[in-house]
Design goal:
Number of helices: 9
Shape: globular
CATH superfamily of the domain at 15-102 and 167-266: P-loop containing nucleotide triphosphate hydrolases
Order of helices and strands: EEEHEEHEHEEHHEHEHEEHH
Radius of gyration: 22 Å
Strand order of the largest sheet: 6-9-10-3-11-12
Structural class: alpha/beta
CATH class of the domain at 15-102 and 167-266: Alpha Beta
Number of strands: 12
CATH topology of the domain at 15-102 and 167-266: Rossmann fold
CATH architecture of the domain at 15-102 and 167-266: 3-Layer(aba) Sandwich
Bound molecules: adenosine-5'-triphosphate, magnesium ion
Largest sheet: 6 strands, mixed
Oligomer: single chain
Length: 280
């Protein structure tokens, strides 16, 4: 299914995993999973807790290595030794527990580890003006008007922090943006802001990998969907192949939900009264 070499109009994927497996000791975290990421597209990875979503992105991010299958970046097969190597290839990953320094200003966090400097030798110092200005304009460019880039990043909402991390990846020239459940802890409104931002990164030509539990969020912005179930691929669809209803049904494990609903109907209610317990 993947773009074959010399396969005519198929373009080379930014990232392509083919039949990838990963073991943690005896635990099979991923088995035979395939995923394509194209520029200007959002590939969503959906699945329940423990399905292998984070494991998958850790391979792409250079934190873990796959045990079987192939992982290619822009057509070249890779086995990344570190997150640094992934970054050098243009793969930026935003983890759910964002690596930010809460008490440092937004602009400091934006440039953390990549600070521009002015002058040379003993006169070399951080170019604070540039950092402030750039942070503000990069956020504005993606539609967020930060009142004050000097405020500690810890005072921003969870959604805004996700947005800073995404803007940062775009600014530093990422080609691939990997997001691990960016909306998991957010309410409806903030999720909307983050999703708009994810779409902005896509419109800037990046290939995005969006990990989520939420089929609604995935279907709103996604171009491709990979469903993981206990480490295996339970489905792989493009947007025109699958409706939101069907995606939700597959995600919820349709038949399992039916089973659960039967059990809930039939099961005698457990006795939760106090005198049912041993103490009381
Ligand atoms: N470092 C590890 N060592 C051993 N087992 C692991 C390790 N990391 C993950 N696993 C196991 O691999 C499986 C997949 O885990 P993973 O974190 O990829 O799931 P996930 O889809 O991201 O789940 P969640 O939605 O809860 O974040 C799970 O059974 C998990 O217990
Ligand atoms: Mg996870």
């Amino acid at each position: 299914m993947g773009p074959q070499a010399g396969g005519g109009n198929e373009v080379t994927a930014l990232v392509e995993l083919t039949g990838v497996s990963k073991f943690y000791g005896n635990i099979k975290a991923l088995q035979d999973v395939s995923l394509q990421v194209h520029p200007g597209e959002i590939s969503c990875v959906l699945g329940d807790n423990g399905a292998g979503k984070s494991t998958l992105i850790k391979i792409i991010a250079g934190l873990h290595q796959h045990d079987a299958g192939t992982f290619a970046v822009e057509g070249e097969e890779r086995r990344l030794a570190s997150p640094r190597e992934a970054l050098d290839l243009g793969i930026a990953t935003v983890y759910q527990d964002l690596a930010v320094v809460p008490l440092m200003p937004v602009w400091r966090n934006f440039f953390l580890g990549s600070e521009p400097t002015r002058g040379t030798g003993p006169f070399k110092r951080l170019d604070v003006d540039t950092m402030r200005r750039t942070t503000r304009s990069e956020m504005l460019r993606m539609g967020i008007d930060l009142r004050d880039v000097d405020q500690p990043i810890g005072t921003l909402s969870g959604g805004e922090r996700q947005c800073v991390a995404i803007a940062r990846a775009v600014h530093f020239g990422a080609k691939v943006l990997v997001l691990d459940e960016p909306t998991a802890a957010l309410g409806v409104k903030q999720s909307g802001v983050v999703l708009k931002y994810v779409a902005a990164a896509r419109d800037a030509g990046l290939g995005v990998v969006l990990i989520t539990h939420n089929p609604h969020h995935a279907h709103l912005v996604g171009d491709r969907f990979v469903l993981l179930k206990r480490g295996t691929m339970a489905g792989s669809h493009t947007k025109d192949e699958i409706s939101l209803d069907e995606l939700t049904r597959q995600m919820a494990g349709g038949s399992e939900l039916e089973q659960l609903s039967h059990e809930l109907e039939r099961a005698p209610a457990p006795d939760l009264s106090r005198d049912g317990g041993s103490r009381g």
